[in-house]
Every structure is written in structure tokens, then in C-alpha cells.
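Protocol step 4 of 6: structure prediction from sequence.
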Amino acid sequence: MKTLHDLHRPLGNLGIHVSPIGLGTVKLGRDQGVKYPNGFTIPDDHEAQMLLKLARDLGINLIDTAPAYGRSEERLGPLLRGQRQDWVIVSKVGEEFEAGQSSHDFSAAHTRLSVERSLKRLETDFIDLVLVHSDGNDLHVLTECEVYQTLADLKREGKIRGFGFSGKTVEGGLRALQDGDCAMVTYNLNEQGEKPVLDYAAAHGKAILIKKALASGHVCLSPGVDPVQASFELLFGHPGVTGAIVGTINPLHLAHNVATAAAVIRRQA
């Protein structure tokens, strides 16, 4: 079985090594207002436990969650009990999701409250990486709000090991990497506009996590081309990419994604 155990790579310069595929967990906590082509049922605790065990067996140690993912964080706390040393946990600040609505708050007070709440929910003393969940006004959030400075303070206090930005613009990504450790960017077969952020990260030893790595719309590929393979060839062909967050609750898809990524990365090495 192809796994990622021997393919872990540095998360920028944080001294943390992560699997090139990370497990996104929005589907463990939220089924409203999500942009997926098909509906899905949130897995129960047993199904979630089996998914996490499979991910670990496949060599995945990177897990991505957020307060905006409904009950994701509070479910992961108990689900990962006794396994903290096996996982690199990424969470977010800035976006809340309540009663089917998203709202944003980038103040110092809310940032601190959000991280403290995530620590409690996740039942941990520290979070490996906290990203700002941008509302799209990236430069405004980074330069006019207190969120980034507050995350830097929390890093000094040891509550988080690193911080960064999940944004929507090239300018935001570049600015975020100047002072932060990681940018989460959209990069896939359909959307490559944020590539300058990847280039900057590669040149400056910063981390890049890819969201929407397997964008829908693979119909543009020739018949017989595996869209997952083509996606990973693009992503992992760029030296700036640390890992891709893939949010699946389907064990077969997870195993296929890992096997494909492992094969692509070995071929490219």
C-alpha cells in the first residue's frame, strides 16, 4: 500500500514535519452553506474515528479545522484523545459560523478568545498553526486589524507554534508571508492566479498549504486523464508547496488521493 510515512516535509521553518496531504475536516462539523457539488451526511463518531485511523495509517499527520467548521473542533478534541503527538493541528481565527451565517471579527480580543476556545475544544495546550480566515479584504485585515499582531503574541506565549493567513489575493498572500509562517492559497488546474505567493514562499523558506486542490470542473481534461493525478502533478511540481488539504469523508477517495500523491511525489523526486 502506498503511504506518505516517508514523505513528510518541513512546514516552512517551524521545525515541524507534515504529510503532503492533510485531512480537511469541515465535513465533520458542518453541512450548511458549504460549496460542494453533492450533499453529504456528517459522519457519526464511529465513522469519524475510522476515517482518522485510516488517515493515520496512510501516513497523514496534518489535520485542518476551524471555528467556522461548525462542530468540527469540539468533535476532534475527544476523537484525537491520546493521539496529540501523532497530529499537526491547523486551526483558524477570524470567521464564525452560527445559525447558518458567517461573520468575521479580526480584533485582538476576539483573536485571543478564539484561540483559547480552540485550545479547550481541541483538548490541547498548543495549536501547531493558526491561520487567519480572511473575508477577502486581505490587505485591510493584515494592515488595519489587530489579528496578525495578536497571533504573533500568542506564538511568543507558546499557545501556538506558528501563524499565517488563508486569503484570496496575491497581495494578501505576499504580505502575510513577510511576517507570518504560512499562507493557505487556492491553486489547482483551474485557478493558478496565486502562483506568485508560492514562488515567494519557495524563495523565502515559508510554508504553503493548498486549499481547493481538487477543484471541481475537471471536465477540461482529456478522456483517460486522472484528474487527481493531474492536480497533484501541478501542485507538487512547485517547490513552494508544502501540502494540500483534502476534505473528504470517503475512505476510498482518501486512500486513492494518498496513493496518487505518493506516486507523483516519488516520480518527481
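Step 5 (inspection) to follow. The CA atoms of residues 190 and 220 lie 9 Å apart.
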